[in-house]
Fold each of these.
Amino acid sequence: MTAAPARLREDIDVARTVLATEAAGLRALADALDDSFTQAVSSLAATTGRVVVSGMGKSGHVARKIAATFASTGTPSQFVHPAEASHGDLGMIVPGDLVLAISNSGETRELADLIAHTRRHAIPLVAISGSADSTLARAADVALTLPRAPEACPMGLAPTTSTTMQLALGDALAVALLTRRGFGPADFRQFHPGGKLGAALKRVRDLMHTGDELPLAAPGMPMREALLVMTAKRFGCVGVISPDGSLIGIFTDGDLRRAMAPDLLDRTLGSVMHGEPRTIGVEALAAEALHEMNARARPITTLFVLDANRRPVGILHMHDLLRAGVA
C-alpha cells in the first residue's frame, strides 16, 4: 500500500532532521577532540593483552561493534557485558588488558564492579562518557568526553545522537591506532579471508597463470606463427619479449581486427604490436589489477604480470578475478 504524498514528505522531513541532528553532533565531537584522545590511542598502543570493551544497554550494543572493529584491525579485543562481569566474567580481564568503558551518563550502576576491578588490579581504564564529572570519567585513567548535543528523538530521550557519537569515537580510536601501527592491506587480509573483501585483498601472484601457460613470442616471429601461439594459449593476446626476456609489447584480438590486411600474415609480430602494454606487479592486490583493467577509456581483459626487471612471470585474465570473487 502506497503512503499518501503528505505522509511521504513528513517521513522524509523527520529523517532529514534526525540525520542533520546527528551530523551536528559528530561535528561537535570532532571539534572537541583534545590531548585526551592521543592519550587514549597511546594507551591502546601500549596494551600487551586485549582491549576489553564494555557498556550497558544501547552503549553495550555500540561497545560490541567497537570491539569487533578493533579485532578486525589487528587489536585483540572482546566485549564483556558489565552485568555478567559481576557474576564471574571479571575473570576474563587480567593485568596487561585495557578496559574501554562506555556510558553516556557515566553513572551506569552495572559498571561499578568492572571499574573497581580495573582499579584493584592496575588495569588501564579508558572512558567514553557524556560528562567529565561523572563517576566513570573521574575513575578513568583517560576520559573521553562527548560534547553536549541534543538527541535526535523528538522527546530527547531515546539514545540516538549520543550513541552515534560513541560509535564514531570508537571508529576514530581504531583507525588512529591502526594508522599508528602501520596496519596495511596485507594485515587486513589476515582477518578478512572470506567474502568479497577477502577476495579483493588477494595478491596477483595467488591468481595468475605461469610457466608454459604464458603466450609469449619474439618480435621477429611471423604473424602466421604468432596467431597460432595466441590461439593455443587462449588468452586472446600474445606478449612480445626482447632477447633479454623483458616485455616490450602486446598483440591482442582487438589489434588483430584493427590490423587486418591482405599482407598481415606475412608481417612480423613486432611490426604490428602495441608498444605500451598495461601490466601489473606480482605483489599487487587483486583489487589493483581489477582497477588497472578498468582504469582507462578502453577496458582490457588481460594483464601481464611483471617482475622487477619487467620480465613477464605470469598473466591474469578478468575471468580469474571473476572466479575469485574480486570482480
Amino acid sequence: MSKILAIESSCDETAVAVLVDGKLLANVISSQVDVHRKYGGVMPEIASRLHAENIGVCLKEAYNQSHLSAKDMDAIAVTRGPGLIGCLHVGLQAAKALAFAHHKPLIPVHHLAGHIYANEYVGQLKFPLLAVVVSGGNTELVLMDKPLSFQIIGETKDDAVGECYDKVARVLGLPYPGGLPIDQHAQKGKHTYDIPVPLKGHRDYDFSYSGLKTSVVNLVHNLTQKGEEIRLDDMCRSFQDVATGMIVDRALRAAEEYHVKQVVLAGGVSANSDLRKKMQEVIKGDVELVIPPLWCTTDNAAMIAKVAEHLYEEKLFAPLSLAVDPNWKIDHYREF
C-alpha cells in the first residue's frame, strides 16, 4: 500500500488530496468559478495567478485534515496534462519542489485517467470496460481491456460537450458554467425546436459539437430577428436532447461492439441528470453502469491520488526535469 500526496491544477480548481492505503484522508478544493463567472469562461492568466496564491493554502489544509505532511508520504503525484499550460505549471512546480525537498518520487498523472479512476471510490473497475469521458475540455470514449490500459476509440473533432454547453448558455443569457442551468431548464421543457444532430448516421464513435453550438446560435439569432419569443425551457430541452443523445448513442453501440463488462461515466458533464438517466435506461443486462458521486465529477485531487496509487505500484516515476503537456493523450500516459 502507499501514502500519496496529490495535486491537481489543470483548469480552475486548485486541489490537494492525501490518500493512505486506499483511504482518503484529505480532499481540499479551492474553486475559482465565482471569479471566472463574470467573464463567461475561464481566463487562463487569472486562473494561473490564483493557483499560485491558493496552492500553499490548500497544502496546509490537506496537512491539517490528514495529520500528515509531505515528509510522511511515499510519493508526490501531480496532474501533468491535459489542461491549461499556465495552470498545470503551477501544480507541477509545487509537486517538484515537494519531491525534491523531501526526497520523494514524482508521479505524473493524466487528468482524464483521474476522472476514470474516480469511479473506484464507488466500486471496483471491471475489465474490459468503456469509459465515457465528458467534460468542458474533453469528449472521448476510452476502451480499457485491463488496468491502466487506455485506447481512444472515439473523440470530438472540434468542441467538447462541456464547452458547447457553456457557449450555448451564454447565448441564452444563462450563467457560467452552463451545464447546470441548462439542465435545470431542460427538465421543465419539451423538445419543440428542430435542432440538427451532428454526424447523424455515421457509424464511427467520434463526436462533433461545434455544429450543434452554431445551430443553436443561429436559431436564437433568427428568432430574435423575427421578434419571436424564445421559450427558454423548450430550447434547453431541445439542445440537451441532442447533446446527450450523441453520447448515449455512441456509448451504447461501443459497449455492444466491444462486449464490455462495465461502462463508467467520467468528467464534469457526468453530473448532468439527463445523461445519467438516459445511460441508466440503455445500459442494462450483463453490462454494469458505474456513475461517479457528484463530488467526484468536478476536478479534484482525490482522483489524481487514486491513479497515482496504481502508478506507484508500477514504480512509474518521473525525473524532476518533467514538463507539463497541455495536449497529453491518455493512450500515451507512460510517455514523458
